[in-house]
Amino acid sequence: MTAWVYNFGDGSAEGNAEMKTLLGGKGANLAEMCNIGLPVPPGFTITTEVCTAFYENDHAYPDDLHDQVAPALASIEIIANAEFGDPEKPLLLSVRSGGRASMPGMMDTVLNLGLNDETVEGLAKLSGDRRFALDSYRRFIQMYGDVVLGVDHYYFEDLLAEHKELKGYSLDTELAADDWQQIVDAYKNKVQEVLGFPFPQGVNDQMWGAISAVFGSWMNDRAQTYRRIHHIPASWGTAVNIQAMVFGNMGEDSATGVAFTRDPSTGERLLFGEYLINAQGEDVVAGIRTPQSLTKHAREMNGSALPSMEEAMPDVFGDLIAAYEKLESHYRDMQDLEFTVQKGKLWMLQTRAGKRTAKAALKIVVDMAAEGLITQEEAVMRVDPAALEQLLHPMLDPEAERKVIARGLPASPGAASGEVVFDAEDAAHAAANGRKVVLVRTETSPEDIQGMHAAVGIVTSRGGMTSHAAVVARGMGRPCVSGAGMLRIDTKMRTMTVAGTVISEGDVITLDGATGEVMLGEVVTIQPEVTGDFGILMGWADKARRMRVRTNAETPEESQVARDFGAEGIGLCRTEHMFFAPERIVAVREMILAQDTEGRRAALHKILPMQRQDFTDLFRIMSGLPVTIRLLDPPLHEFLPKTDADLKALADVTGIHPEAVRRRSILLEESNPMLGHRGCRLGISYPEIYEMQARAIFEAALAVKADGGEAPIPEIMIPLIATRREFDILKPKIVAVADTVFAERGDRVDYKVGTMIELPRAALRAGEIAESAEFFSFGTNDLTQTTYGISRDDAGAFLDDYLHNGIFEQDPFVSIDKEGVGELMQLAVERGRAAREDLKLGICGEHGGDPASVRFCDSLGLDYVSCSPYRVPVARLAAAQAALQSDGGTDGTA
Amino acid sequence: MTAWVYNFGDGSAEGNAEMKTLLGGKGANLAEMCNIGLPVPPGFTITTEVCTAFYENDHAYPDDLHDQVAPALASIEIIANAEFGDPEKPLLLSVRSGGRASMPGMMDTVLNLGLNDETVEGLAKLSGDRRFALDSYRRFIQMYGDVVLGVDHYYFEDLLAEHKELKGYSLDTELAADDWQQIVDAYKNKVQEVLGFPFPQGVNDQMWGAISAVFGSWMNDRAQTYRRIHHIPASWGTAVNIQAMVFGNMGEDSATGVAFTRDPSTGERLLFGEYLINAQGEDVVAGIRTPQSLTKHAREMNGSALPSMEEAMPDVFGDLIAAYEKLESHYRDMQDLEFTVQKGKLWMLQTRAGKRTAKAALKIVVDMAAEGLITQEEAVMRVDPAALEQLLHPMLDPEAERKVIARGLPASPGAASGEVVFDAEDAAHAAANGRKVVLVRTETSPEDIQGMHAAVGIVTSRGGMTSHAAVVARGMGRPCVSGAGMLRIDTKMRTMTVAGTVISEGDVITLDGATGEVMLGEVVTIQPEVTGDFGILMGWADKARRMRVRTNAETPEESQVARDFGAEGIGLCRTEHMFFAPERIVAVREMILAQDTEGRRAALHKILPMQRQDFTDLFRIMSGLPVTIRLLDPPLHEFLPKTDADLKALADVTGIHPEAVRRRSILLEESNPMLGHRGCRLGISYPEIYEMQARAIFEAALAVKADGGEAPIPEIMIPLIATRREFDILKPKIVAVADTVFAERGDRVDYKVGTMIELPRAALRAGEIAESAEFFSFGTNDLTQTTYGISRDDAGAFLDDYLHNGIFEQDPFVSIDKEGVGELMQLAVERGRAAREDLKLGICGEHGGDPASVRFCDSLGLDYVSCSPYRVPVARLAAAQAALQSDGGTDGTA
C-alpha cells in the first residue's frame, strides 16, 4: 500500500528533512523540526505523489487517500486535545501547499478551517474571546470563499469597508464582537448570493475543498509563470500540509513573525526578522501592517518606536534564540523561520534554507567555513554562481551627486536607473522594446512577477524586508527598495508625488537597493571593488576547479576587466568588432568594393597597421596567456553603408559612386545571412583577408615579445568550418604568413591554428577535422541556431509560446540544450580527441557563462570555458562546483 | 619491384580489360584486344600509378621507370621490325593519354613521334612516298610543338596558309613533297624563333617530352573542368599508351575511322560510324573533313556521293565486321571502336563501351537481354538513371508549325528553344542569369564545355556525328544538331545568316536533336509517349526494387503525370502552394492580418472549401495510395503583398488600411526566414491554421470515399519538428479534428500523423519523436541547409569556389552529403526504428530523384523516395539498381 499521508507532531514524525521530493520542503522540515524536539503544531502531509496522481487522473484522488487521512486527522485530535467539528472543543486546521522548491505566494493557503456557525461558539468559549472567534470566522469565510469557492475577495473587502464607513470606524481594531457577527452574516449572505448555495458548514467538506484548492493552485497561471522563470518542472507537484491552527492573534501575549538566522542582505550573524503582536502570519508577509523588529539592536538601527520582540516578550524571544541555534547547527545553513506565539508559547511553523543576496550568501558560507560548520568545498558548492553576477555589476558612484527624493527599506541590493512604469504589463512591454524601466507599485503581488522580471529595479511604497516584493526581487537579483511610504502613487494618472515633486511615467529615476534610496534622474555607476569574502571564496573555487576560464573580449578595457576578474586568457576575440571604428570602416568598405584581389590587397594594407595595434594592446594585457582570435566571420554586406548619408560619405572619401555601392550592396544581400557567405567561406573566396589578419596577429605578438613582454600564445581560429577540406585550404595560408613574418623579424612565437565547432556537420566530422586542427572552440550560439533551425534574431516571435507550452524548459540560447546540441558536442569531443589526443577544447558561445552549461562542459571534459568579462567569476565558481560534483562531491544534483 | 610498364602486341599482353584502374580504359582494352587475337599495333602502357607519383613528387618519375621503359620499347621494335631513331628502319610512335574514365579530347596526344631530319628520310624510303613522309614530319612538328613545347598551333596554321596562298593552292592535297619540305623548314625555324632553341632531334628526348606532356595535361584547366562536371576524382590519374604508329594516310588503300557496334542514337543493331580515306585519326574526330559512311545502307540514307567503306574496301570491311562481332560478344556491350587501315590491313586502335543516348541505351539493353547476351538484371543495372530523364522531357509537338531554317545531323536527341549565343562564355553567363540559351558555334572544342553545359542546346555548322560537339552533347543529355553547314556564323558581328535570314544574338531559335532541324522562334513541345523499351525496362526495374517511389506534387496535372510515370502515391504535397492562387491569397492575407484567433478563424473558414477541393482532386488521382500532406510551412510574411499595387488591392477588398498591412509586414519580417517563425512553430502559435487544414484533408478523403472511390490514405506531416513536445502538442489537435469530422460524417478513413526530419536536432532526438510520430519523411533540403549551415538561396556566392577547391565533390543540394547529412539520417533511422519497429520512412527532399541519393536511401532501409514527377522513372530505376547492388548484384560499385 502506498503511503499518501505522513504524520508529525509531539516530538516525532513519520517523515524527515531528506524527504523533500515526497513531502515538499515545508512538510519535510516540519517533520524534521518535530524530530529534533522543536515545538510544532501537530499535523500531517499529503504527498506530492497525490498531486501527480490528481493531475494524471482527471482531478481524482487515489482510492485509499480518504482512508489514510482519517486516522491522521484523529492523531492530531489526540495531540491537540480537540475534535474536528466538535462544538465544544473544536479543532481548527491550516491547509498549506508546499512543493519541493519554494514558490512564495504562488499557491493557495486556507487558515482557520473547521469553523462554522456552531464551532465558532466553541472557539469563543474556549478562548474566552468572542471577538477573536468571530474575527477568525470572518477571516476563514473570506479566505475559503476566495480560494476554494472562487468568490472574489473584493466582495468581502467592500462589505467590511461599508460596515466601517457606516459605523465611522477607521481601524479594524475598533470593531467589536457584534460588528464581526454582522460581518460574518453579511459574508455568508454574499456567498449565498454569488454562488446560489450557502457557505459550507460541514467541516469535512471544508477540508476536502481546501485540499483540492491547494492541489488545483499548482496549475494556476501565476504558479506556471513562476515555475517557468525559475525552471521548476510541472511534474514535481506540491504536497499539502494540514496542521492544527495556532493563533498569533489571541491578544497581546500572542504574535506572529518571520526570522532569518543571519541577515539575508548582508549575511551578518544575527537574528534578523519581523513580527507583529496580535496578528496572523499572513499579515506580516502581505505587508499590510508595518512590522516590528525582533531585536532591540535592529529596532534602534531602524529608529522605530514600536517595541522589539526582545523587549516585548523576552522569555519567548529566548525560546526563539534557542530554536535558531538548534536549527542552524542542525541544518548547517542559514534558516528562514516562521513562528507564532499563542498566549506566550512559541510554535514553529516553518523552517527552510533562507533566500539571501549574493553578498550575504558569500559572507555566510565564508563565515560558516571559518566557524567550522561547513568545509571550504561545501562553501564553494553553496553559492549560486548566477547570483554572483549581481555582486559584480556596477553600483552607484559614491562621488556622484544624488538627488534623493525618497527612502525605503534596502530590500535587495544593487543599483539601477530606468524610466518609471506603474504597471507590470507596461514593464514587460517596455522591456520587450529594449527600454530600461523601474517598476513602481504600492505593493507587488504574484501577478506582477513577469513585470518584475522585466524591470531593472523595483520600488514599493508599502511592505517590509520580507514582503512579496523584497523576497521576489532578491531571488531575481533585481535591486529593490520596499516600503518607501512617502511616495504617493496615482496609478490612474500614472504619476507619483513625493514632497511636491510630481514624477510621471517615463521619467527616469535611480534606486539603490543597498541603501534604500530613490533618486531623481540617472546616477553614475561604478564597478564595485571585489575583495574580502568574494576573494576568499574565489580562491577556494580556483583550488577546486579543473577547467580554465577565459573571456570573450575585443577591447583593451574589456580585457583588463576580465583579467582583473581572473580570466586566464581570451577565448574569443571577434576581429570584425575592430572594423567598425569610423576611421577603419572606410578602408573596410574600399576592400569590399574592390573589383579584384589587387584592389582588396591595397585596402587591406591600410587596415593592417590598425589591426596590428589592436592585437598588440590585447596581447600586452594578456601577456603570457593564450589569446584566441577568430578571423573575419560576418558576411561582407554587414559592413556596407545603409543610409544615403553614409553612402555619400563613402563616395566623397573613395570616389566610388553611391550608385555603384548600392549595386554592390544589392549583389551582396542575402536571404539568410546567418547561413550565407561568411566565416571561412570568405576566407576561401578572399584569402587575402585572412592573410592580412594573420600578419597583424604575428607582427603584434612579436612586437610584444620584442618590448620584453612575455609573448602571448595566439590561437588563430577559423570560423564556420563544415569540412576538413576548408580547414586544409586555409591553415597552410596562415602557416605561410607566420613563416614569412618570423623570417622577416628573425624571431618567432608559439601559436596554434584551430577552428570553431559551430555547425552540426563540423561536430559530426570532428574526427577528420581534428587531424588538421590543433584546437576546437564550441561556438554554441551558432550550433544552437543550426541544430534547432532557429535564428536567435527571429526566435522572439515564438519564444514565449515555446516557453509557455513547455517546449523549451529554458531558452536554449541561455542554457545549452544538452539533448540535442549537447549530443553533437559530445560526439565532437569524442571524435576529436580520438583523432588528436592533446586536442585543446573550449567553448566561446554565450553559454560559457551559464552555470548549468559550464557544468555540462566540465562533464564533457572541455579544457576551458570563455564568457563575457563580468561573468568570469560566475564561470570560475561554476567550474569549481562542476569539478567538486564530478569528484563525487557534496551535492548530488550533478 | 613495382611494375610501372605493361607490354602488349602480337597476340598477347601483360594486362587485360579488368585492369582499367591501373592501365586506364584505353590501355586495358588494347591489352584485351591483343589477348583475344585482334590486330593491335604493338606498344606498352605506363600505369596511372606513375601519374600519381608524378604529382606527388613534384613532377619527378619513379627512379626505375626509365629502366622499365627501355625493354618495353625494345619489345615493340622486335614486333614492328623497326628501330626507334634508326635512319633506315625508323620506328614511329603514338603517345596517348588514357584514364580510368573516358575524357574525350581533354588530354594531349602526340603522333608520328620519332621523326627527325634523318628518320624522315628513312620513312620516305620505306613507304616509297616522300610526300607522305614529309607531311607526317610537319604534322609531328606541329603537334609536338603545340602540345609539348607550347608553341601556339596558330603559328603553324598561319605558315601553312601563307604557303598555300603564295602558291595559289586551296587544298592540302595540292601540296607536293617539296612544298612539305619547305613547310617543315618553316616550322622548325618558327620553333627556334619562338623558343630560342631548335626543334628536338633526339628521339628519346621526344618520347620523354611527350610522356611528360600527357601526364601534365591531366591537370590542365579543361581536364579539371570536365572532371568536375563528370565527378571524376583527380586522384585517379591517367596512364600513357605508347604504340607503334600505323598510318591511315599512306594512300588510297589506307584509311582511318571510328565505329559503334550499334547506333549510339537509336540503339539499332547495325555497324554505325564514319571513316576517311587517306587520313589520320585526328582528322575524323576534329570534324575538319566531312567523313564518309561505313556501310552502303548508311550512305544511301545520308544521300552521300562519297563511297562507303563497305563499297570502297570490301575485304577490310569484312575484317572490321568480324572484329565487331568478336568484340560485342566478348564485352557483352555496345563498343566504340577506332581503327586504321594501313595499305589494306586493319589495325584496331581502341575499343570501349560506347557512349549512347538514353533512348539507345534502353534499346541496346532490352535487345541484348532478348538476344541472351545479358540478363534482365544486368539490363537494369546498365542504364544510367540520370540519363533516363532526357527521354522524359518534352519533345517538339509534331502538329506545331516549324519554320525550319537549317538542317544538320541529329547529333543528340531532345528539343530545346533558347536565345542564340555565339560564345561559350556568353552561354555560361546568360545561364547564370537564368536565361535559356542555345550555343551556336562553327565547331566546339574542349574549351567550350562549360558553355555547352550551361546551354539548353548546341548547334554547330561543321563536324559529324562523332565530332566533339556531338559526343559531348550526348554525354550531357543536351540536344545537339551538328554540321548544319548552311549556317554562316559571324562571331564578330554576333549574327548567323542562312538563306538571307539574319539571326542575331538574343533571337530565339529551336533545335530538334532527333531530326537535325533548326527552327526560327520557339516551337511548342509535348510530352513524349513512354512505351516500348522504356516500359519493358521499367517492368524489370519494378520487379527488382524494394523501395517505393512517390512524387512531390500539389496540382492535379502534376499528380496525373507522376501517376502515369508510375508514382505510387504522393510523398510531399506542399499545401502552401495552394494558397497563392489570386482568389485565395486575399483570404490568406486576411487571416495573417487578423488581430485575434476569431479573426483568423473567420478568414480560414473562407479558405477551407478551396483547400478541401484541392485535396479532393489529388485524392481522386491518387485513389488507394498514400498521400503525404505537409501542413503550412513557410513564414507568414511570404504571403503578404510586396508592391504598393498589391497593398492597395488588398486594402480595397478587405478594408484594411495599406499602412496597417505595411506595419504588420515589418513586424513579421525576419533576419533569417529559413530559421524563423515557420513550420510547426506556426502551428504552435496559431493552432487554428493546422486545424483548418486537417479538416479539409479529412473531409476531402471522406468525399472521395463517399463517391465510391477507393479512399486515399492521408499521411499528415508536421514540418520542422525539433522536439517531441512540439509533436505531442500538435498531433492531438489533428486527431481531435479527425474524430470530429468522422463523427459528423458517420464514416472514417485510415490516416497517419508523422513528421519531417529536417533539423539536426530532430534526427538526434528521433527516438523519442518516433514514440509519437507514425512516419518520418526526411526533408533533406532543409537538413542540408542546417547541417552545413548553408542557405541554398545564398550558396551561389561561393558554390563555384567550393566546387573549384574540391570542398564539395558535388553540390550537396543535388546529391546527399553522405558523411554529414547522411550520418544524421542514419542516426534518425536507427533511433526511430528502435522506438517504433513499423515506423514508415521516406525522403521528400530534391535528393529523392538523384540516383546516388536514392542508392543511399536504399542502404539506409527507407521505405520510399519521393521526387518531382519527371524524375519518378529515374527514381524507379535507381531504386532497382540499389536493390540489385545490395543483393550482391552485378555491379560492384555499391
Number of helices of chain A: 35
Strand fraction of chain A: 15-25%
Most extensive chain-chain interface? A-B, 47 and 47 residues
Largest sheet of chain A, order of strands side by side? 15-25-24-17-18-19-20-16
Our measurement of the CA-to-CA distance between the termini of chain A, rounded to an integer number of angstroms, reads: 32 Å
Oligomer state equals homodimer
Averaged pLDDT of chain A: 90
Task: Please characterize this protein's 3D structure.
- By secondary structure, chain A is of the alpha/beta class.
- The first copy, chain A, has 35 helices and 34 strands.
- The first copy, chain A, has an 8-stranded mixed sheet. In chain A, strands 27-28-29-30-31-32-33-34 form an 8-stranded parallel beta barrel, surrounded by 7 helices.
- In chain A, helix 6 packs antiparallel against helix 7.
- Chain A starts with a strand and ends in an 8-residue tail after the last helix.
- The relative contact order of chain A is 0.06.
- The interface between A and B is large, with 47 and 47 residues.
What brief labels describe this structure?
homodimer, 894 residues, alpha/beta, 8-stranded parallel barrel, disordered C terminus
In short:
The structure is a homodimer of 894-residue chains. Chain A is α/β, with parallel strands linked by helices and 894 residues long.
